[in-house]
Hints:
alpha+beta; FAD/NAD(P)-binding domain; 404 residues; 8-stranded mixed β-sheet; 5-stranded mixed β-sheet
Amino acid sequence: MIEPTSVEAQYERAAGDDLRTLVVGAGIAGITVAQLLRAAGRHPILVERSNDGGHEGYMLALMPMVDAALDDLAVHEPYRAASTPLTRYAVRDHKGRPLREDSMTGILARFGDYRGIGRGELVDVLTAHGCPVALDTTVSGLTESPDGVRATVVTDGRKSALDVDLVIVADGLHSTTRAAVVGDRPVQAVDTGWGGWVVWIAADGAMDLAEEIWGDGFFLGAYPVADRIGVFLGGADTETAAGPAAFVERVRAGLRTVGPRHERALAAVAAATDPYYWPMTDRRSPAWTRGRVVLLGDAAAGFMPTAGIGAGMAMESAWVLARLLRRTSRESVEAVLRAYERAQRPRIEAAQDNSRALARMMFRRGRLLAVARELAVRLVSVRMALRPIRRLLESRPDPDSIPA
């Protein structure tokens, strides 16, 4: 569980570490790397800008690349208990009619689990052994010297200076600390012009089935987690601006077939008073490391959820970095961070390219485009569509073989 702990208390615990580390951001990537470092006997200082440690209520589908991190944290069983296996995937056409259904088990089983979990439940799993975090805390400055980094952190208007050996920046897609690495260089961004709402509906009798409608100007997905189903309904920002209820009516008008699950999903979106809105955008940093500062997770490469792989890749990167840092001294930090970027960045950007390609296919409008896309979906199996992800799983990183 998240344990609100002052910066000062965490800094004091870190005083005796051979590698004093500041982690900026207590999202999935930041929590994972901090917990892995703690499991290895260190005491990283973890800070988070939100004031309550709360996490957006949306769903995640996690590929097997998360297994190594879960094993090192000894939380694999709690993870399985808090999630549900996703063994089938179905897609419907732009009128809501069944298009195809595929087994995920035969495609991914040899690599490990493919499971649905709520983001809050994943945080609970990762913090099962306790996770000190300084809340309502931001980093206002990082100054490097030959001996380390002086970080200026601000909590409730009060400034503190921390002398550390390493700073891991994991404060998300809209990172306010990324500039410490990239400076004035532009961060590449893709904005699809789409976004959508996330709501929850009750569990049904097909909790192993993830299901999507690729509509003409809309997208509707339903993704089971342990005890409920996460729903995403999205479209062009110009149309979702009318609000959930009005957009649902537009979607209904275009559907010929609406199954019970999707009927409940549309009703839940229409009735929601303040649902979480998820913009379909991403970010790609031009560099991940500079001196003793390194970017991690969405701060390095933020994903759109189209391939369902962003959170998994963030956890994999956190695991690779934490493993490398096990054999890192204060003197070798910079070389190790450069080696980390050389090894992991191509994998992450390849996965991000796959998410972008799916976005170009999914977020389209026009009947002829929808029909052409459906023909392609009929001809291309999920096994073929997941080939880029399978290649990533077949070539999992080995931190022990990465030369510093």
